[in-house]
Amino acid sequence: MDLSTAPAEDPRPDPTDLHLRVLAWYADHARDLPWRRSDATPWGVLVSEIMLQQTPVARVAPVWEEWLRTWPRPADLAAEPAGEAVRAWGRLGYPRRALRLHAAAQAIVEQHGGEVPSTYDELLALPGIGDYTAAAVASFAYGQRHVVLDTNVRRVLTRVLRGAELPSPAVTRAERDLATEHLPDDDRTAAAWAVGVMELGALVCTASRPSCGRCPLADTCAWRAAGHPSYDGPVRRAQTWAGTDRQCRGRLLDVLRATDGPVPAQALVGAWDDADQRERCVASLLDDGLLVRLEGDRVGLP
DNA sequence: CAGGCGTGGGG
DNA sequence: TCCCCAAGCCT
Fold first, then answer.
1. Distance, angstroms, CA A55 to C1' B9?
2. A262: containing domain
3. What is the pLDDT of residue A2?
4. Strand B lies under 7 A from the Cβ of residue A282
């Protein structure tokens, strides 16, 4: 290559080049996920995004299929008691998401005529929908241009553009600015870029053991060029599990999911030995609305 | 804003 | 076995 006529070297890769590489890679390697099919509705996309918050694709897929079969439109879910959503949620984890999705369906019916709203601000106002999910639905379901910053996108951009292994625990202003600078200008390309970078992070540029040999951005990746330096930022405290309220709440709710209707409060005793903790968790589940107390000293799903 | 909130699979 | 998660949100 003749460098004598090349322009001054820009250490940063050309955004358009990144876009083309990611779009081409996605066209060849994207997974055929049900919520990406051409017949998927905005409601289907929204449901998938809520379910995928902290839960792997493999476990979401079958529940999503059944959910959409049962409640193909927001109004179908909104007409049900919230407990039916909690029951159908099964073992996806974080069941408060089921409650919020049900509440979102009701808000969609009451405030948006039963149609999933298309603007970021309207989506953000729905229960259970934060910055990421609002941007994702607006982008994936409605083809709009938004900065979609999930853990996958953050990791890819951090590696390729900043040369670090992992992003900081919380999104910084500089990180968001960087993502914005690299967003394609037009809606269509920006939406394709968002889903493409996410997929690249999920399949190739993974948190552990990334497959740089299969990465379309390998030869422009700052992290790879730097020799894959290890993460040196603040360490997020490892989450304990055994004996926590989270485990206790899960056990308690599992009793209700396993039966059709309400159960005597006494039926929860076998689910957790520590009586104090059990009562505290029952109280918190009641407070969250995941559990309701009924007459005759019984408890049930809402 | 740090901490709470489920679950089951893989290294 | 034990540890680390996996497309965050809310307070």
1. 11
2. 245-300
3. 42
4. no
